[in-house]
Design brief:
Keywords: Signal. InterPro entries: DUF3857. This protein has three domains: 5-269, Sandwich (Immunoglobulin-like), CATH 2.60.40; 275-445, C8orf32 fold (Roll), CATH 3.10.620; 451-656, Jelly Rolls, CATH 2.60.120.1130. The protein has ten helices and 36 strands. A hairpin with a 2-residue loop joins strand 20 and strand 21 (405-409).
Length: 657
């Protein structure tokens, strides 16, 4: 039967608007203010190459109860560097026709003799690309874009397979003058929102409406909840050292459907607990259904693994077999696409296919093992208060060893090891699934033991102002993993450049790496080097003993910071040096011994420098006791880091005489 809707009347509106900040205007498609065409710069971010003039989304349910979003976005290009904003890509889940995008309109507006000149993009130049089995993308480039252009596009998005409202990001990589999202949802649907908003709304309107569906005796009436939120003068989000993903830091609203209350029926609850989320995964054929599927020739691996005496040996063996056989196709998804059997035969698959195959094989060897879904650092941090599978983008393997120890395995990374949780999973939650015991628990994934790096320098200071010596660097944990990956990916010559860290006065004469493929030992790098000491002359020699150290430069120079600092793991650095003073020289100025601690005692720094028997002995020790510093802590953190960096790079002065 054809459904007929009748809009009755607005019951009420509650408005909260900041009086001191008038809401910037949006305009119909194709209508432009000449002041915007003549705009030369963003008022609140002067150095921006482009800015969003407005971004407006209207979300509602159509007559068939499909979710629709009509979006209109307008951008101002200030200079040639901003022209890249004219290349648009919009991804959606269109592979199985769950979502579709239609009515795309694209145009560029330029000023010509004091009047707007509109150039529309031909429909044949709007392309649809297949990303994978599930995702598609609308791709287009604006025509005739130049400095001063206004570009705008609009489209209609429809979700016909779920009742999930689209997420809304107020913030992006360029500043935004105004961003607004309006939603109108039937009270038959109950949504939970998760917001990350750092500034007050300039528009915050809520209200309701009443609608009728059907006719005659079959007609029924329901209410809709209406909400409009708007932000103005939103700064761009720039990448900062040691920030988490952009998704974690952008100002945004996420929506989660928690229940449906059908007319005349019982309330149907959706995933609103982690237990429901875990059960949904394990019952899904593209996840839990893969765990018992037999892999080709798996008996060979299983029989060899069972011959080992300890679980650790079994885990190490099976992990290596899977990692060496399988190639990650760079795709992340919390479900399998081709399935473990097909991926195993092709020897390539997404991360979930690789790790569910690993989970299956380990289980066959008798190891107590569980699948776990996680979110990579790039994908974003999981909120434990927001039970939703959409937060996860990868499956891994969880192995509880005892009450104090566990392993998190990911065989999709060629440089991962079985006994070290992958760095990109740290400081977020994982959901592990124990089907037999019906346990679906969140686990916070962290790394309690500090990752160490020890640098030992032995060098002779030559009278002509040079160093000739050796360095031994012992790297543990994540320092080892990152260095090994860099060396194997880039090759020795590029790795030498990495060790030089931009110092053209440093020459790497020899390099030898040991223990690269032994998981239980640190990476040992043995380096022969020569260093010309700048500013030295026949009477004075200046030495900076902070050599081959990751603490050589200070990444926290900016006075202000918008995002939190997340080091991922705790770190411990030890730098020691023995420098032989050349004949005819003596120590003229030695930096003082010093000990310094952050006010919250989270970082300690110690420096010891002394002279003995013609040798200068140097020791720096830096110990981090926490991994995350919130942006409100940044002024104090920055001040400490600057002092520490200055002390690390304070010079030793030798004088002739």
């Amino acid at each position: 039967m054809k459904k007929v809707f009748t809009s009755v009347f607005c019951l009420f509106f509650v408005t909260h608007v900041l009086a001191q900040a008038p809401t910037p205007a949006t305009m119909p498609f194709g209508k432009v203010d000449m002041a915007d065409l003549q705009l030369k710069a963003c008022e609140f971010e002067k150095d921006a190459n482009a800015m969003v003039l407005f971004d407006k989304g209207d979300v509602y349910f159509d007559q068939d109860f499909n979710i629709v979003m009509e979006r209109h976005k307008r951008i101002k290009i200030f200079n040639d560097k901003g022209k890249d904003e004219g290349n648009i890509r919009i991804e959606f889940y269109g592979g199985n026709r769950a979502e579709n995008i239609t009515d795309v309109q694209v145009e560029t507006i330029n000023e010509n003799n004091g009047k707007p000149e509109i150039t529309k993009l031909e429909r044949k130049l709007i392309y649809t690309e297949n990303v994978d089995q599930f995702r598609q993308a609308i791709v287009f480039a604006f025509p005739n874009v130049k400095a001063g252009s206004i570009i705008e596009y609009k489209y209609r998005f429809q979700d016909v397979a779920s009742y999930s409202l689209p997420d809304w990001f107020f913030q992006g990589n360029i500043p935004c003058r105004y961003s607004e999202i309006s939603t109108e949802t039937p009270d038959l649907f109950v949504y939970k929102t998760q917001t990350h908003i750092l500034q007050p709304f300039v528009k915050n309107i809520s209200g309701s409406d009443s609608k009728t569906i059907g006719m005659g005796a079959q007609a029924f009436t329901y209410n809709t909840d209406k909400r409009t939120r708007g932000l103005a003068n939103i700064p761009s989000l720039t990448d900062e050292p040691y920030m988490r993903s952009r998704a974690d830091n952008l100002q945004r609203i996420y929506y989660q459907l928690t229940s449906i209350r059908p007319v005349g029926g019982f309330v149907r609850s959706f995933i609103d607990t982690w237990e429901k989320a875990g059960n949904s995964l394990i019952e899904n054929d593209n996840f839990g259904g893969q765990l018992k599927r037999k892999l080709k020739d798996e008996e060979l691996i299983i029989s060899k693994a069972k011959a080992f005496k300890t679980d650790d040996e079994k885990i190490a063996f099976v992990f290596k077999q899977v990692k060496d056989r399988m190639k990650w196709n760079d795709a992340d998804y919390r479900y399998t696409v081709d399935g473990t059997v097909k991926a195993w035969e092709k020897q390539t698959g997404n991360a979930t296919e690789i790790n569910l195959a690993l989970c299956h094989l380990l289980k066959q060897t008798g190891v107590k093992v569980y699948p776990m879904v996680v979110s990579t650092r790039q994908n974003g941090q999981v909120s434990g208060a927001y039970p939703s599978l959409f937060q996860f983008n990868r499956a891994v393997v969880y192995i509880p060893v005892d009450s104090t120890k566990h392993y998190v395995l990911d065989a999709s990374g060629k440089y991962n090891v079985y006994n070290e949780t992958p760095y990109e999973l740290l400081n977020s939650f994982g959901l592990y699934i124990d089907k037999e015991e019906k346990k679906y628990d969140l686990l916070f994934i962290d790394h309690d033991i500090a990752a160490r790096e020890v640098v030992q320098i032995v060098a002779s200071v030559l009278p002509d102002g040079k160093l000739d010596g050796t360095a031994e660097i012992n790297s543990y944990s994540y320092h080892k993993l990152s260095n090994v990956e860099k060396y194997k990916k880039d090759g020795e010559e590029k790795y030498k450049k990495f060790l030089k860290n931009g110092d053209n006065n440093l020459e790497i004469a020899s390099l030898k790496l040991e223990n690269m493929d032994i998981d239980t030992l640190p990476l040992c790098q043995k380096i022969g080097f020569k260093l010309a000491l700048p500013a030295s002359d026949e009477n004075y020699i200046y030495i900076n003993p902070n050599l081959f150290s990751p603490l050589k430069t200070n990444p926290f120079l900016s006075e202000n910071r918008a995002t939190d600092i997340d080091f991922g793991c705790r770190n411990n650095y030890v730098i020691t040096g023995s420098y032989k003073i050349p004949a005819g020289f003596k120590a003229d100025a030695l930096p003082k011994n010093v000990s310094m601690t952050m006010p919250d005692k989270s970082i300690t720094f110690r420096r010891f420098i002394g002279e003995e028997d013609g040798m200068i002995k140097v020791s720096y020790i830096v110990n981090y006791k926490k991994t995350v510093y919130y942006n409100v802590e940044y002024p104090e953190f920055r001040e400490f880091y600057k002092k520490m960096n200055d002390m690390l790079n304070e010079q030793i002065v030798l004088k002739k005489g």
